[in-house]
């Protein structure tokens, strides 16, 4: 089987960023670190071979989808991406059908089973399922991609690379040679790349130090801002999140559920009452949590839960097709003690405005940058601490351009 794309260098290796490596370290048998998505489509499903050909013709735009993890010897550096010499598109793109009657319940059960299984780290870290047998005659797509490959924003852009919104589609590119993977890297290749990566990080640190000497006033000003931001993060981390039914030991299995919401409705609320769409999302999540806690007999008077909110630090000139993560984390409020929706939105809005005025985001980005110089073993421990469930009750992510928001209990 061949895949379109010009051959890469036989020794081409890409080192994972510190953030991407930390997302690998956070994974455990009961805590999955892949991003899942469910898309429902109208009309008959495409033929499986036609579906494969459509994806095969676009894989040259997303080379990471044909690469797997390789590891330097003796933990001398972060893992690396290398071409998968045994890549088979049919392994990653799968076909299945729902049992009768093919309704929402059957689709949700299938999604839960797919999302409950971890990805095989010996292969490229993604799957795409073509699901037929829906009661309305349509079909669905289930995608599962490891967070170390893409973040929310890059994932959305990769979707536009693989799929067309235009009815006529995109014609295949001409003149592309069949893709040929690079040769399997040996221990010396991996060791040399790891050493080169560490040397590059050291040179980058030295260059920053020289730049600071040239412009000491600006360096001191930036250092003060970063120090203030780090202090705010340490202060927030010092106070654990309040206990809740969400902060319990979890198993590997997942349940999947969804509700339909119109983005236009969130924008209308934002336009009438102020704030941002993300403020409205947090207020709605807080209201739903309030109802759920009451259904479990939990009193919410005076209770404010804490959400871990990923914040994109992706620069405008970064190419999304390169994959990887450009994110930091903040801790946002979920005021479940507020009954009135408008008052709840006002509380969320005021708290988020304070966070934006604070230096917490700057400190979070500084921590992300410093991870580049941390040894792999220390990075693993730090990443687990950063996402410790004693610091937050759930994760809220919005796949938009400002901050991205899924529940820890659903991960």
* N-to-C order of helices and strands: EHEHEEHEHEEHHHHHEEHHHE
CATH topology of the largest domain: Chloramphenicol Acetyltransferase
End-to-end gap: 35 Å
What is the overall pLDDT average? 77
Multimeric state: single chain
| Structural class based on helices, strands and sheet pairing | alpha+beta
CATH homologous superfamily of the largest domain - what is it?
A: Chloramphenicol acetyltransferase-like domain
What is the 3D shape?
globular
Q: Can you list the strand order of the major beta sheet? A: 2-7-6-5
Low-confidence stretches: 1-11, 378-383, 400-411
The total beta strand count reads 10
Walkthrough of the structure:
Helices cover 40% and strands 14% of the residues. The strands form three sheets. The protein has a four-stranded mixed beta sheet with strand order 2-7-6-5. A three-stranded antiparallel beta sheet has the order 1-4-3, covered by helices on one side. Strands 9-8-10 form a three-stranded mixed beta sheet. It folds into two domains: 14-162, Chloramphenicol Acetyltransferase; 263-410, no CATH class. The chain contains twelve helices and ten strands. It has helices at 18-25, 48-56, 89-92, 104-115, 152-162, 187-214, 216-238, 263-273, 277-295, 341-357, 360-370, 376-386, and strands spanning 14-15, 34-41, 67-70, 80-83, 93-97, 126-132, 139-146, 305-312, 327-334, 394-395. Strand 6 and strand 7 (139-146) form a beta hairpin. By secondary structure, the chain is an alpha+beta fold.
């Amino acid at each position: 089987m061949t895949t379109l794309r010009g051959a890469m260098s036989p020794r081409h290796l890409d080192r994972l960023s510190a953030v991407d490596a930390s997302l690998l370290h956070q994974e455990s048998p009961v805590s999955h670190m892949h991003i899942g998505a469910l898309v429902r489509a109208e009309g008959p499903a495409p033929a499986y071979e036609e579906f494969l050909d459509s994806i095969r013709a676009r894989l040259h735009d997303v080379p990471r989808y044909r690469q797997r993890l390789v590891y330097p010897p003796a933990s001398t550096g972060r893992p690396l991406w290398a071409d998968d010499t045994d890549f088979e598109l049919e392994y990653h793109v799968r076909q299945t059908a729902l049992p009768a009657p093919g309704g929402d319940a059957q689709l949700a059960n299938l999604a839960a089973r797919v999302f409950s299984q971890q990805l095989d780290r010996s292969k490229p870290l993604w799957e795409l399922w073509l699901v037929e047998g829906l009661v309305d005659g349509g079909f669905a797509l289930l995608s599962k991609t490891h967070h170390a490959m893409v973040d929310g924003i890059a994932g959305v852009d990769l979707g536009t690379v693989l799929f067309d919104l235009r009815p006529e589609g995109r014609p295949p590119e001409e003149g592309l040679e069949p893709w040929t993977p690079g040769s399997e890297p040996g221990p010396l290749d991996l060791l040399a790349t790891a050493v080169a990566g560490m040397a590059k990080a050291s040179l980058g640190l030295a260059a920053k130090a020289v730049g600071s000497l040239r412009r000491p006033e600006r360096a001191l000003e930036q250092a003060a801002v970063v120090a203030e931001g780090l202090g705010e993060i340490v202060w927030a981390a010092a106070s654990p999140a309040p206990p809740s039914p969400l902060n319990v030991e979890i198993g590997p299995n997942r349940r999947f559920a969804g509700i339909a919401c119109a983005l236009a409705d969130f924008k209308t609320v934002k336009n009438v009452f102020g704030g941002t769409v993300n403020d409205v999302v947090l207020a709605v999540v807080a209201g739903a949590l309030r109802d759920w806690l009451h259904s479990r007999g939990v009193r919410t008077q005076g209770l404010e839960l804490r959400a871990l909110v990923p914040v994109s630090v992706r620069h405008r000139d970064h190419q999304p097709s390169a994959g990887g993560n450009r994110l930091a984390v903040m801790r946002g409020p979920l005021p479940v003690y507020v009954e009135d929706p408008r008052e709840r939105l006002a509380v969320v809005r005021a708290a988020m405005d304070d966070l934006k005025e604070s230096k917490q985001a700057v400190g979070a980005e500084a921590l992300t940058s410093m991870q580049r110089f941390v040894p792999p073993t220390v990075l693993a421990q730090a990443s687990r601490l950063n996402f410790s469930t004693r610091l937050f009750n759930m994760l809220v992510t919005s796949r938009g351009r400002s901050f991205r928001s899924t529940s820890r209990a659903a991960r």
